[in-house]
DNA sequence: CTCATGACCTGTGCGC
DNA sequence: TGCGCACAGGTCATGA
């Protein structure tokens, strides 16, 4: 589930659930999600114990939870990560990997991750911008996001436009769903060379990506009342608002032609064959 | 430097 | 019923 809007929903949920609360115990139930904490699981638990959470932050799909006395808990949800805030009396959800217990005896925080591509680590001095996140570009919700600079860099990429949109060092937060949605709205084929986009087209596809993520966040916000976000994608937003993603064989909402699914970058791309035709082959000089 | 590819994991649903 | 395979919303290391 987690692209920018979903991660932002989680960030807001964490703000409500853990800000101002002090950790008294950390249980590492599986080592893999703390693999990037190089000092090991026991050190991870020891370092966090006794710390109090401040306001959670986000860049792109990365989350970090600063502590009031410095450092931060760095988190990435990967493909299947969730944070859950549950009363301590309730059993762990399946695939619970890390459990945080708090001094106030209130709800526990549980990091749940089926595939374990995500993970947690302690980022020393990471309150402002963790070193692990420094290579990630600003996302379009960032007040300092620079559209002109991003457009200029996009138009220098010698790759297909979808690959460029997914490049978290160019613009962060966009994943497979919102890339496909932005391309459909912009009537662009995923393989259109980024450096053949007009300035207008480049601006347009970034604006559409931003717009679709903003709409998705709005949907997530209205239905959000706990930390649970459905990994299976059965939330209302996905049923109602996606134009192409996951709609293979269904009619294009603009022209009625059946949506095609094609492999691209070891994943699926969905497009309308009429609205988003394959680009003409370009023979580059030298 | 840039770009493309496969590895990293578990679980589910489908066709046979 | 059981098995094998395709597939799942991400990132990173490693090659060319």
Automatic annotation (TrEMBL):
The keyword rRNA processing does not apply. Keywords: DNA damage, DNA repair, DNA-binding, Glycosidase, Hydrolase, Lyase, Metal-binding, Multifunctional enzyme, Zinc, Zinc-finger. One of its GO terms (biological process) is response to oxidative stress. Its EC number is 3.2.2.23, 4.2.99.18. GO terms for molecular function: 8-oxo-7,8-dihydroguanine DNA N-glycosylase activity; class I DNA-(apurinic or apyrimidinic site) endonuclease activity; damaged DNA binding; double-stranded DNA binding; zinc ion binding. Residues 2-118 form the Formamidopyrimidine-DNA glycosylase catalytic domain. Residues 243-277 form the FPG-type domain. DNA binds at residues 115, 157. It catalyses: Hydrolysis of DNA containing ring-opened 7-methylguanine residues, releasing 2,6-diamino-4-hydroxy-5-(N-methyl)formamidopyrimidine; 2'-deoxyribonucleotide-(2'-deoxyribose 5'-phosphate)-2'-deoxyribonucleotide-DNA = a 3'-end 2'-deoxyribonucleotide-(2,3-dehydro-2,3-deoxyribose 5'-phosphate)-DNA + a 5'-end 5'-phospho-2'-deoxyribonucleoside-DNA + H(+). It holds the Pfam family zf-FPG_IleRS. The active site is at 2 (schiff-base intermediate with dna), 3 (proton donor), 61 (proton donor), 267 (proton donor). The keyword Lyase applies. Involved in base excision repair of DNA damaged by oxidation or by mutagenic agents. Acts as DNA glycosylase that recognizes and removes damaged bases. Has a preference for oxidized purines, such as 7,8-dihydro-8-oxoguanine (8-oxoG). Has AP (apurinic/apyrimidinic) lyase activity and introduces nicks in the DNA strand. Cleaves the DNA backbone by beta-delta elimination to generate a single-strand break at the site of the removed base with both 3'- and 5'-phosphates. Belongs to the FPG family. NCBIfam families: fpg (TIGR00577), PRK01103.1 (NF002211). This is Formamidopyrimidine-DNA glycosylase. It comes from Microlunatus parietis.
């Amino acid at each position: 589930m987690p692209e920018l809007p979903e991660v932002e929903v989680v960030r807001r949920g964490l703000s409500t659930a853990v800000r101002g609360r002090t950790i008294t115990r950390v249980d590492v139930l599986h080592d893999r999600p703390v693999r990037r904490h190089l000092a090991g699981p026991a050190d991870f638990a020891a370092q966090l114990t006794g710390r109090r959470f401040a306001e959670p932050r986000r860049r792109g799909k990365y989350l970090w939870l600063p502590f009031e006395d410095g450092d931060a808990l760095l988190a990435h949800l990967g493909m299947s990560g969730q944070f859950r805030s549950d009363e301590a009396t309730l059993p762990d959800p399946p695939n619970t990997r890390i459990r945080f217990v708090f001094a106030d005896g209130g709800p526990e925080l549980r990091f749940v991750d089926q595939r374990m591509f995500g993970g947690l680590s302690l980022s020393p001095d990471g309150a402002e911008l963790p070193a692990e996140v420094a290579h990630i570009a600003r996302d379009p919700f960032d007040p300092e996001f620079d559209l002109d600079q991003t457009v200029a860099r996009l138009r220098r990429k010698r790759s297909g436009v979808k690959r460029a949109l997914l490049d978290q060092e160019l613009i962060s937060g966009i994943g497979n769903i919102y890339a496909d949605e932005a391309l459909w709205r912009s009537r662009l084929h995923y393989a259109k060379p980024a450096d053949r986009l007009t300035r207008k087209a480049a601006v347009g596809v970034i604006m559409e990506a931003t717009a679709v993520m903003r709409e998705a966040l709005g949907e997530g916000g209205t239905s959000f009342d706990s930390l649970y976000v459905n990994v299976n994608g059965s939330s209302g937003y996905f049923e109602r608002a996606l134009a192409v993603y996951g709609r293979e064989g269904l009619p294009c909402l603009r022209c009625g032609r059946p949506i095609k699914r094609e492999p691209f970058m070891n994943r699926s791309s969905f497009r309308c064959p009429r609205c988003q035709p394959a680009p003409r082959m370009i023979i580059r000089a030298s």
